[in-house]
Structures are given as structure tokens and as C-alpha cells.
UniProtKB/TrEMBL annotation:
GO MF annotation list: ATP binding; ATP hydrolysis activity
SUPFAM superfamilies: P-loop containing nucleoside triphosphate hydrolases
Region (Disordered): 241-308
Gene Ontology BP, a term: negative regulation of cell division
Bias kind Low complexity: ranges: 257-282
GO cellular component, one term: cytosol
InterPro entries noted in UniProt: CobQ/CobB/MinD/ParA_Nub-bd_dom, MinD_archaea, P-loop_NTPase, ParA/MinD_ATPase
Transmembrane segments: none
Keyword Cell division: yes
Keywords annotated in UniProt: Cell cycle, Cell division
Protein name (record): Cell division ATPase MinD
Keyword DNA repair in annotation: no
Length: 308
């Protein structure tokens, strides 16, 4: 197993697939028998709950950071080997949460699980920068779109300032016949290219279903790419799961007291949340539906470098 067990999944721009990447890498490793915790550390704009069909009224990370609950109270079993720690969506909860307690949360989860994945908020704020320094490594997620690439440069710089280490770049919404060199994007950012995730219509469908893509469409191109990425991170071999091995698509139990309810009744409640998540994090398309031209990508990175 890799010596790095806590990963922050970060991006400088919303709409690049950060939460989908977090959930699917974690689920793929859980399917391989690893004990995994995924944590929504986007304290201001949380959306992990909608991706995995958790009841948004349950105890969350906000309650833990406010000193009103223990981490176990906000830890929910999603399927065999995988749990989630969601953040709240209310402004009052956000105001009462203290990000400084996040270090203790990560330490507890590190001791209890093989892998911990922190879904970090986009942008620049104290709660965004803090997880970058708590993780063993940071995965930078970006589409090939120039604005996303430019903001990736800023995320890399923030990681360095937080005392963290960047593992590499994950490029999402790629196309097999594109003229863009994803290796060149990573090279210009001066970090390794860890993997590319192809455009896949099943990604949007899986968000509405509240089911990880590697479960919803395990043989799809994006699911295969996520399993490959997970295998590379862990240094293991992963194969497509059989239907018997796939995590339950409907049940999410609280650990240890089963306080979270199954999402069958919460699916409609989460519909608006999932719609926002699709548009704001994972499945939003470029205005014209096309990838940026290579020259635009290079100029975006050059501009980011000149600004610093």
C-alpha cells in the first residue's frame, strides 16, 4: 500500500469534477477491500451528500467542528469498506464551525481507515487552504479549459504555501481525438499527469442517481479511468467489480448508531442539490461545449506565471 494515505482533492475552479473524482476514487478502493473515508471539507459550499444520497438533516462535519458532536456521529456508512463525512449546507452551521479543528478530524480518520480523501472547496479561503497542508498529497483536478488550467496554477501555489505536496494532475472531460496534449498541460504546470478522465454522459446520470459512477456504470470509460487512477495511487491492481461485489446503491447507514436514513426517500429532497452539484462541480460544460485550443491553454498558464 502507498505510504500516502490522506489525499486532498482540490481545484481552483468549480465545475471540473472534483467531487466526482473524490467519490469514485474512494469507492474504487473500497471495492478492492480498502477501508476508505471521504470527507467534505468544502465547509461553505458542501455537496458531497447529494453525490452519495445522504440525508442532509443528519449530523455533519459542521457539528463536529462546532464542538457539538464527535466525528463518529457524523460518519456514515455508504457501503462495504467506505464511509462519508458530509458537511452541512446551512449558513448558520457554517458560521458556527471552526476550521481549526479539522486537523484533529483528519488525525482520527487517518488512524481508523486505510485511505482518507478530502473533498476541498474551490477558491481561496482559510478553510480551503488548510486541508492542502493536512493531506499527505494533493491531487489537482482540472478540465483542459484555459480558466481551469490557470486556476490550477494558483492551487499548486496555495499548496506550497500551506506546506503541502502536490501528487499530480487529473484532467477530466477529455476526448480521445482531441488535439490537446494533456501531458503538455501537466508539464507546463510542472507537476506529473496522474490520469485523464474521458467525457462520459453517465457521469451526469450518476449524480442524479446519487450513486458513484464506478457503481452506476462500472464498464463505462470514465469509471474505468477512475479505477485505473485509484489503482495507480494505491499501487495495486483493480478490476471491474462483479454485480455481487458492487456497493449498495440505496443504503447509507450512520456509524455507529445508524442515524442516517437510506436515500430512497431522500432522492427527491436531494434533487435540487444534485442539480446544483451537476452545474457547479462535475458536469458543467464549456459555453460552446468544446475543449480549449492548445494555444489558449498554453497562454493561460503563461498568464498565470506572469501574474506571480
Amino acid at each position: 500500500m502507498s505510504q500516502e494515505t490522506v489525499y486532498a482533492i482540490a481545484s481552483g475552479k468549480g465545475g471540473v469534477g472534483k467531487t466526482t473524482t473524490t467519490v469514485n476514487i474512494g469507492t474504487a478502493l473500497a471495492q478492492a477491500g480498502k477501508r476508505v473515508a471521504v470527507v467534505d471539507v468544502d465547509l461553505g459550499m458542501a455537496n458531497l451528500a447529494g453525490f452519495v444520497s445522504l440525508n442532509p438533516d443528519s449530523t455533519t462535519l459542521h457539528d463536529v467542528l462546532a464542538g457539538d458532536a464527535e466525528i463518529e456521529d457524523a460518519t456514515y456508512r455508504l457501503a462495504d469498506n467506505i464511509v462519508a463525512v458530509p458537511s452541512g449546507t446551512g449558513l448558520d452551521e457554517y458560521a458556527e464551525a471552526s476550521p481549526e479543528g479539522l486537523g484533529d478530524v483528519v488525525a482520527e480518520l487517518r488512524a481508523a481507515y486505510d485511505y482518507v480523501f478530502l473533498d476541498v472547496g474551490a477558491g481561496i479561503s482559510h478553510e480551503t487552504v488548510l486541508p492542502l497542508g493536512l493531506a499527505d498529497s494533493v491531487l489537482v483536478v482540472s478540465t483542459p479549459e484555459p480558466a481551469a488550467v490557470q486556476d490550477s496554477k494558483k492551487t499548486i501555489e496555495l499548496t506550497a504555501r500551506a506546506g503541502g505536496e502536490v501528487a499530480g494532475l487529473v484532467v477530466t472531460r477529455t476526448h480521445p481525438h482531441s488535439d490537446i496534449s494533456y501531458e503538455e498541460i501537466a508539464s507546463r504546470l510542472e507537476i506529473p499527469l496522474l490520469g485523464t478522465i474521458p467525457e462520459d454522459s453517465a457521469a451526469r446520470e450518476s449524480v442524479y442517481a446519487g450513486t458513484p459512477l464506478v457503481v452506476y456504470e462500472p464498464e463505462g470509460p470514465a469509471a474505468i479511468a477512475y479505477r485505473t487512477l485509484a489503482a495507480d495511487l494505491a499501487g495495486i491492481e483493480l478490476s471491474a467489480p462483479s454485480s455481487d461485489a458492487a456497493p449498495d446503491k440505496t443504503e447509507a447507514e450512520s456509524t455507529p448508531d445508524s442515524k442516517a436514513t437510506a436515500a430512497t426517500g431522500a432522492a427527491e429532497t436531494e434533487a435540487s442539490s444534485a442539480t446544483d452539484a451537476v452545474s457547479s462541480d462535475d458536469s458543467s460544460a464549456d459555453d460552446d461545449g468544446r475543449e480549449a485550443a492548445p494555444d489558449d491553454v498554453s497562454s493561460a498558464i503563461t498568464e498565470a506565471e506572469s501574474d506571480n
